[in-house]
Every structure is written in C-alpha cells, then in structure tokens.
Design a protein that fits this description.
Helices cover 29% and strands 23% of the residues. By secondary structure, the protein is of the alpha/beta class. It has 2 domains: 218 residues, TIM Barrel (Alpha-Beta Barrel), CATH 3.20.20; 136 residues, Beta Barrel (Lyase, Ornithine Decarboxylase, Chain A, domain 1). Its EC number is 5.1.1.1.
C-alpha cells in the first residue's frame, strides 16, 4: 500500500449498525450522533451512511459542525446542536434550519436575539439535568427555563420542539442513577407539558441506553458510538454491531539488528537476540497513543506483534523476530477483529480508556478511505 497510514471506514457497517439500532429502538426515531468528525470516521460520509441506514436526525455538538453538514448538502434533515456555549453563531444556525439546545434562561435569550437577527424563529430543545450534573437545568431551575422559553415562544422568537436529557451511567446497566434519571426526566417532561410546551420529540437515550434500557426510548434515541460499531457496554457482548474503522499502515522498512540493540527513544526496549525490526509509519501525531508504547499490539505478517519501545510522533517499531516483511506490506493496527487484528476496544482496555477515545483521536493527517456501497471507494482528506 502506498499511504503511510490510513483509516478505512466501512460505510456499509455504519448503515447496517444504524438499521439494527433503529430496529432495537422500536418506533422511536434515530438521531445519529456525528459530532467530532463522526467519532473520527469523517463527518459527511458517516452522516450520509447513517441516513442511508434509517437515521432521520443528525446530532452534533457545535454550530460549526452543523453548518458544515448544511454546506455539504445535507439540508433536508433535522439537525441538532446539543452544546450550549455563549457567543456561538446561533443566527447562522437558525438561518440554516439547525435546532439548538437551551439549558438555561440566558441561553434562551441568546437564541431569541439570534432569531431576530436571522429573521426567523429558532427551533430549540430544552435540556434537563436529571442527574449528570453537567449541562442543562436541574429540577430547581427547570420551571424558570420553561417559563423563559414559553415567553420567547409567545413573542414569536422560537418554538420549543424538544425536551431532552442525558444519562451519566447508562453504560453500567443496573446502576441506580439510571432509574432515577429516567424518573426525574418523566417529571420534568410532565411539568413542561403542563406549562404548555408541545414538543415534537422527547429524548434521553445514548447508545448504552438504546441497547439496554428500552423504557427510556421516548420519541427519539441518540446513539453515537454504537453507530460506529463499538459498544459502550463491552462486557455485555457486541450486540451484533460491526466496527466501521480499520486503521492500517504500510511497512516503511525492515532491518536486521544484533542482540542488545536499544530501540526508539530512551531505549526502553532492547532486543534479546538478533532480530528483524519493522518501522511502522504512524505515531502520536496521527493519534496513536504514546501510552501504548511497549504495550499495544498490531497484526503484522499474520501474527500479533507488540509495539517495541516508545511510540514516536510519526512512527513506531515492532520486533518481527526471524519473520520478515517487505516495504509496503500492510500492518493492521486495529479493526473489526475478524482477521486476528486487535479491536479499538482491545486497545482501549490495554490503555485504561474507552473505545470512543481510540477512534476519535485518529488525526487529520490520516486519510479516511471509504469502502462499501455508499462510498464507491472514495478518499477524503
Ligand atoms: C455524544 C452524545 C450522545 C451519544 O453518546 P454515545 O455514548 O456515543 O452513544 C448522545 N447524546 C448527546 C447529547 C451527546 O452529546
């Protein structure tokens, strides 16, 4: 292969995962969460694949992400910006028919002002803090938020189209906060509806809740990681999801070195005998975690090999023993696992993190190569 490192993204896996999540969600609609470059998979191709799989909404964190979807022609689809940050270009979002989230009265005012500038009413979702202690209005602030939103609605500045919250511990099925968040959300929804809010959609479920908490589906579920084929509840199996990303690199060079050779920065790995080393052209500048030095495994020449010594900015080394590889031979860093390569989950477990971080951190220097019917084999970035 010619490219130093590339992330192959199977768009059929994304469409298929969305289709299976949609089935699981019963009658609820699916908002595909495509923030952060679709968890590293590439915003636009992943969004298109998710829509092909039956998603009817797209979810992003920031206004710029929503505007990019619109600029790239994803115009007819409901899109939500879920993070409320002062000073975001909300007027542009409103003009582009992007839904916004308000978790505090100041946010309602900021959106109402932006709607006046945009010359059309905003569509907003009120965010309840049901127990995560992050964004959104807690039960005590909720009545004031609902009141501010209804006043702005009466003034013609916006329409409250959604009521939402977010789980803190849905990846731990049976955690007591799941039931309590669900109960609090029900009460807050009831309060808002009694006060006169007529939402199109009420939504609470991330991937973990979509997979394990059917009673929390309401009108819409918001899976992210599961769309990309990774599970937030790894101990419960794969739920039939297919990982979409395979990270590969072409062997840069192979060399024979004597016993006692110190390898990479700091010589933290020293060869025990005469051996073949291969240089793999992917490093922490591409998103390979430096914490994975002398720890993570890759698939090279049909066998698992551990990274030998420190991960550098642009490359790392593996020890092949008496095996050899030719320059350009493909090395699989992680993937679905069916060829014997590690999965992103396996890397995450070794590093004490979550699969989300492994795929999302793969950097912009790594081209995404799309496969699957929706792709026609194109390259982006
Ligand atoms: C990221 C995000 C999700 C998706 O979470 P996953 O655990 O990846 O399924 C859902 N809702 C909101 C508001 C988010 O920001």
């Amino acid at each position: 292969m010619r490219s130093p490192a590339e992330a192959r993204v199977d768009l059929d896996a994304i469409s298929g995962n969305v289709a299976s999540l949609r089935e699981r969600a019963g009658g609820a609609e699916v908002m595909a969460m495509v923030k952060a470059e679709a968890y590293g998979h590439g915003l636009i191709p992943a969004a298109r694949a998710a829509l092909a799989g039956g998603a009817t909404w797209l979810g992003v964190a920031k206004v710029a992400e929503g505007l990019r979807l619109r600029a790239e022609g994803l115009t007819g689809v409901r899109t939500l910006v879920s993070l409320g940050v002062p000073g975001e270009p909300y007027d542009q979002a409103i003009a582009a028919d992007i839904d916004l989230t308000a978790g505090a009265p100041w946010m309602v005012r900021e959106i109402a002002d932006a709607a006046v500038r945009a010359g059309r009413p905003a569509r907003i979702h009120l965010k309840a803090d049901t127990g995560m202690s992050r964004g959104g209005a807690g039960a005590e602030e909720w009545p004031a938020l609902v009141e501010a939103a209804l006043a702005a609605e009466a003034a013609g500045h916006l329409r409250v189209v959604g009521l939402m919250s977010h789980f803190a511990c849905a990846d731990e099925p049976g955690h007591p906060s799941n039931a309590s968040q669900l109960a609090v959300f029900r009460e807050m929804v009831e309060h808002a509806e009694k006060a006169g809010v007529r939402p199109e959609v009420r939504h609470l479920s991330n991937s973990a809740a979509t997979l394990t908490l059917p009673e929390a589906r309401f009108d819409l579920v918001r899976p992210g990681i599961a769309i990309y084929g990774l599970t937030p509840v790894p101990e419960a199996g794969t739920f039939g999801l297919r990982p979409a990303m395979t990270l590969v690199a072409g062997t840069a060079l192979v060399k024979r070195v004597p016993a006692g050779s110190g390898v990479s920065y700091g010589h933290t790995y020293v060869t025990g005998r005469e051996t073949n080393l291969a240089v793999v052209p992917a490093g922490y500048g591409d998103g390979i975690p430096r914490h994975g030095s002398s720890l993570l495994e890759v698939l090279a020449g049909g066998a698992r090999r551990r990274i030998a010594g420190r991960v550098c900015m642009d490359q790392f080394v593996i020890d092949l023993g008496d095996d050899t590889l030719a320059a350009g031979d493909e090395i699989v860093l992680f993937g679905p696992g069916d060829r014997g390569e590690p999965t992103a989950q396996e890397w995450a477990d070794a590093l004490g993190t979550i699969s989300y971080e492994i795929v999302t951190r793969i950097g912009s220097r790594v081209p995404r190569v799309y496969t699957g019917q929706a792709a026609g084999g194109g390259v982006d970035g």
